Amino acid sequence: MDIKVLGTGCPKCKALEKATLEAVAEAGITASVTKVDDIVDIMNYGVMTTPALVVDGKVLVKGKVPSAAEIKSLLTK
User: Fold this and answer.
1) SS (H, E, C) 35-67
2) How many C-beta neighbours within 10 Å does residue 41 have?
């Protein structure tokens, strides 16, 4: 599973990255989690509000920080 956290480095972006790493660990999922902070790369996903969570190329969350439990639920669907 390829997970990308899109954000320029604001506190919400950092919180989403932390919650995502926590959710992956709790779920026992094998995934690569990367942080994308280049605004052009972020816009290429069609995201205008950060933070955003992209899983296997699909934007699942944008403009908010879900809890680790919510992220875990999204990842295990």
Assistant:
1) EECCHHHHHHCCCCCCCEEEECCEEEEECCCCC
2) 12
